[in-house]
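User: I'm preparing a small set of examples for a lab meeting where we compare how different chains pack in three dimensions. I only have the primary sequence for this one, and I'd like the structure in token form so I can line it up with the others. Please keep the answer compact; I'll paste it straight into my notes.
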Amino acid sequence: MSFDIEGVLFPNVLTMAVQLCATIVLFLLCKKLLWVPARNILKARQDRMNSDLENARKLQEEAKGDLDEAKASLSEARNRSGEIVEQARKEADNLKEEIINSAKKEAANKLHDADVKIELKREEARQEIHDEMVTVAMAAVSRLLEEKADSKDDEKAIKEYIKEVEDKR
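Assistant: Understood. Below is the structure token output for the 169-residue chain.
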């Protein structure tokens, strides 16, 4: 068997050139058809991710601002509600005082009216007693005049008449 050692050891320049050209063509085709679109896709993906991250940062800042605003509003609402409660308390105390004063005045007026009525009733009772005493005295006098007796008889007649009046009551 005979081997061409020289042919095996040294490559053929033409084959090498064809292979080099084929490799360059394959490389250029891969670059044009695969590498550039893949790089564009990755670039678009990177841009979209950067945009999403930037939007997320903006939203986070807005949310932080909204949170601070909400905290301020909540604090203001708490202060306002405290003021409202305090104002309501003051109004309730004032209303309570007004009601108490009104009730005291009304009670004092009723007591005064009752005192006036009692005094009127007393005066009426005194007047009735006075009238009754006058009537009794007049009746006793008229009886005494009718009987024209001595002083013992007068005393006896007065006592009997008083007893009659007391029995009628």
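A couple of notes for your slides: The chain has one domain: 7-168. The mean pLDDT is 87.

User: Perfect, thanks.
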